[in-house]
Specification:
Number of strands: 0
Helix content: over 70%
Subcellular location: Endomembrane system
Shape: globular
Radius of gyration: 18 Å
Order of helices and strands: HHHHHHHHHHHHH
Number of helices: 13
InterPro entries: AA-Vitamin_Transporters, EamA_dom, EmrE-like
Distance between the termini: 22 Å
Pfam family, one: EamA
Keywords: Membrane, Transmembrane, Transmembrane helix
Membrane topology: Multi-pass membrane protein
Length: 294
């Protein structure tokens, strides 16, 4: 059972940005993310109601919980969505895997803990993986593609900030279901306000691909995979569960090639191997805390 849940989480989260690409642009990216957040919020609210007798409501710092939601479910998602459409799902997945290095670094800074040397090695390999993939086309990259890379990097940094807030909430004793429900509520309200002031239309697309992508992202990625991940942390430990992040670049890269978005090349394969190795090195000890990968 643990193996099945592990593979499920690894594949679902590894294909996250492929699903964003498949979803298309039937509606704006902001409205698509709003729809995703609403569905996920409803699911978390139902789960919170089911668990209501086991969830304490008095260990909540509203600012850090809402901040966690805005970082992990809103601002980072928007930047990563933009990055996926401006560049490729493969490169965004690769960049996002570097959160396995960024999160421990930020946790070390905020909570005044020493940074293990393996984090620096993993970070170097992560940066090197991006350079290796981009180098053959360095003179031909469009400004839009570069913008996509920059957005993906900022999205990953903000996700790591959200992970730090998540650890703060966890240390305070906030139940993860409550934190995710309130965090998702903050995401819904922010996106609703953001789309309203921009005058965007809340249309209901008829494109089948949109609904496949939306349900994948909201039900499978944002809800079910998260529940399985919590179960894995309980059954096999947080460190062992977090190893799956190391495989995200390989899964996303392979899917990108199969869908014809990226071309199979030596630089792509080498970059993916370096990214996986860097993430693995950063996660391989039990003293590294890693959180909900998205």
């Amino acid at each position: 059972m643990n193996a099945a849940m592990y593979i499920f989480c690894m594949l679902i989260w590894g294909l996250n940005f492929i699903a964003v690409k498949i979803q298309g642009e039937s509606v704006s990216l902001e409205v698509a993310l709003l729809y995703r957040s609403v569905i996920a919020f409803v699911l978390f609210s139902v789960l919170l109601w089911v668990l209501r007798q086991r969830v304490a409501l008095n260990n909540v710092n509203v600012l850090t919980v809402i901040g966690f939601g805005l970082c992990n479910f809103t601002v980072s998602y928007l930047l990563l969505y933009y990055g996926t459409f401006y560049s490729t799902a493969a490169i965004v997945t690769l960049i996002f895997s570097m959160k396995s290095i960024l999160t421990p670094v930020l946790i070390s800074i905020v909570f005044k803990k020493p940074i293990a040397p393996k984090i620096y090695i993993g970070g170097f390999l992560g940066v090197l993986s991006v350079i290796v993939i981009l180098y053959p086309d360095l003179n031909h990259l469009s400004s839009a593609f570069i913008m996509g890379i920059v957005m993906a990097m900022f999205g990953t940094i903000i996700t790591s900030v959200g992970d730090v807030l998540s650890l703060f909430n966890s240390n305070r004793g906030t139940h993860p279901v409550l934190a995710n429900t309130l965090g998702m509520l903050g995401a819904v309200l922010f996106l609703l306000f953001y789309t309203l002031i921009r005058g965007q239309q809340y249309t209901v697309p008829t494109d089948v691909n949109f609904w496949i992508g939306l349900l994948y992202l909201s039900v499978l990625a944002s809800f079910l995979a998260w529940l399985f991940y919590l179960k894995l942390i309980k059954n096999i430990g947080a460190s062992e569960s977090s190893y799956m992040v190391a495989m995200f670049p390989a899964i996303g890269g392979l899917a990108s090639v199969l869908l014809g978005e990226s071309k199979l090349s030596i630089s792509l394969v080498l970059g993916i191997v370096l990214a996986c190795l860097g993430a693995y090195l950063a996660l391989r000890k039990k003293d590294v805390s890693n959180h909900y990968p998205h």
